[in-house]
Amino acid sequence: MIRRLLKNVLGENFTENNAKLATVNFGVILLMFVLSGIMLLFLPEQISILHMGETYYPIPSVLGVWLFPIIALIVNLLFIRQNRLTKMNSGVFVILLAVMMFSYVNMM
Amino acid sequence: MKHILCKILLHNKTHPVVAASFMIIGAYIGYLIWYILDSYLPAAAADNGYVFVSLISVWLCAFWGIYQLPDQLCMNRRIKMILCYPVEAQTIVSVVAMRIFILQSGICAAFLYPFFLFEAHRRREAVLAMLFCCILTGVMDIGVILFSILLSRFCAYDIVGYAFVVFQYGSFLVLAWLAGNVVFALWGYIAGKSQAVPKEQELHVALWVWAVALLGLTVLIMALRFAAEHWYVRGYLNVQDFRHREAGKRPTTSHITHPYFLLEWKRVTRNKELIFFSNIKNMITVMILSRLLFYNFSQIGLTGTYVEELFLLMSCCSVNTISSTAYSSDDNKSCYAFLPISGQRLFLWKTIQGFLWGEITVFLFWSILICLERLPVLSAFLLLLYGTSMNYVCSWLGVLIDLKMPRTVNSTNELLHGNISKVLVLITATILTVGEIFLSSRKWLPVPLLPFACLAGAGVAAGEICFWRFCKGVFYDTDS
């Protein structure tokens, strides 16, 4: 039952490398870069990229705003290197895009 | 000709998009590190930040060199194809070494280019630091190549493969183990020395350092030329002999007492990368994951005695790649359908194998815990009991999820990297542990957290054993 359900959701090619998915991922990452560039106009001068308890580590928005797209780019290259491009992983990039936008809206 | 040789030997063509991505990532990470050093370090330490960055870049290059150079020079089967052509051994070595050195220079450049931006008045030092990193990387590369040639030439053909395994992974482990201490200690030492040396002597010291580095490089290059000319080809063929020896060997008749254990043992030990890389990866994941879980859950009020230790041991148990890829990484699974193999017993041995490998990690982290924290004997014993019971719970669950997951035949790297089953086990184990901590922190239970967690872990493990015993039909792999 679990297998049938997962096959329906994720498809048969669960671990298959797929050039189309790589293009989709690069497209999502490019969109992340573009949106980050646009959001740079609305964000405060400094944003926090890390916090440990009550201690925050702010950096200039011009630098910090590219962190999400760069992380997505590294993850995508790792997926390509390991032949692990799947629909689910492309979905993760879309979720990362949504999380990025949510965090930017919160910072505004 | 070198270009064609490079194409034949390395056989990889980097797409421009991927190359551009690497450049963007390198440029960003290099700049971010410099910004963090410049902003968050004390002024005196930030002045010597370039020493720290140089050491980090050389350390990364050393990792890459140790990983790639022996593989590409001594184990690359494509070299055998070109040995029948009039190509000199020195040309082969130089082509491979240069290709890897170019990438390492790129790493050094990515880490040190912000020196020009942050310290615009110290351009001379920036150029020298970059050059020095490249020379040091070159020296290390030549050292690795020389050692590989010596190993391949002077080790007997039946042990040369094992010698390379020890050399590569031993160096890899030593580098990883010493990374923090050595990099920081060297940084402190160099920074201290540079402040202690008067300005007039600075030039004198710098000249000596450069002279030694250049002399070392020259001597090593000469030694490499000699080794490549006289020993490389014979050494390479010696290594290839080790690789192909098994093919001609006639298997001896043997009586297999534990076929299920043997099947699982072969699955795990077939891939040498698994044992080293997977375990190193697991250890790093455990350290990062346990801290991440502890910080996040303590922020929402889940605190108490031994919470950090429980998260640490839970992380050890839940990142068990051997159990979570039990079926998807098994090349023999296509044979199981027509062989008289009990699916139930196979499941049990897959669980036991995963449990035993996972127990090594659990025991290692438990030993570190009791050495660092000097826990009472009873607590130490209960923590080990918790780790062991959770290890069985996670192994069982990992094997079951992997049995029930959709999979394809070609999943060669899952044993090394893990798959979605691993994530599902991690989520389940986290929910279980957080539930235990939540119940204990709200004082809804009459027993302290640690004994309760042990009881819960042992209870779940007992439930899993009962399920395995009485629900035979669930464990047959209908997808093989």
TrEMBL record, chain A:
This is Uncharacterized protein. The lineage of its organism: Bacteria, Bacillati, Bacillota, Clostridia, Lachnospirales. Keywords: Membrane, Plasmid, Transmembrane, Transmembrane helix. The keyword Transmembrane helix applies. The chain crosses the membrane at residues 21-43, 55-79, 91-107. The keyword Membrane applies.
